[in-house]
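Worked example 3. Consider a protein that binds INI.
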Amino acid sequence: MSIFAHQIRQKYLLVNMAIFEGNFQDTSNLRFALVIGRFNDLITNKLLSGCQDCLKRHGVDINPEGNQVDYAWVPGSFEVSLVAKKLALTGRYDAIICLGAVIRGDTPHFDYVCNEAAKGIASVGLNTGVPIVFGIVTTDTMQQALERAGIKSNLGWNYAMNALEMATLMKQIEK
Ligand code: INI
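Given these inputs, the predicted complex is written out as structure tokens:
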């Protein structure tokens, strides 16, 4: 490295560098969309409750009539990414949370739904720049799904935390 490049690097290291991280706190101006699969709604409704509980306790107005959270219901996990993309492209949201439950059956259908849901959701985030949370529970049995949606823990809470972290992190970077 040349002396000049070294001096520039030092200058930025000492003066202008930053640590970006979400703070879960400045939530009053954040807007979220939740996309929820109806398939296995015994599970997805519980994930939704966990999510709402977390958002509410972090100061977010979860009322659908309010101006912070919108809800979109889709038939199943396969359709989640398309609707998430449409919502993301409106530019209205700081993060989008995708909720679904794919439970293995006797056929390879499970793998197709999981793979497409995961690929689709990842591509929405990368292609739109809007943080998107992969909240699709994928399990071998209904028992395992229930254990992740309220019986032991509720991953819905974690998904909301991920959305809060990513939304506040992106705000930090934009400042
Ligand atoms: N959708 C789910 O969300 N979970 C599942 O477990 C599931 N299984 O097993 O079939 C499922 N299928 C429906 C799929 O998401 C689409 O709605 C359907 O194929 C129509 O496109």
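Take a moment to read the result before moving on. Helices lie at 3-16, 41-57, 77-89, 109-128, 142-148, 155-174. Residues 29-174 form a domain with the Rossmann fold fold (CATH 3.40.50.960).
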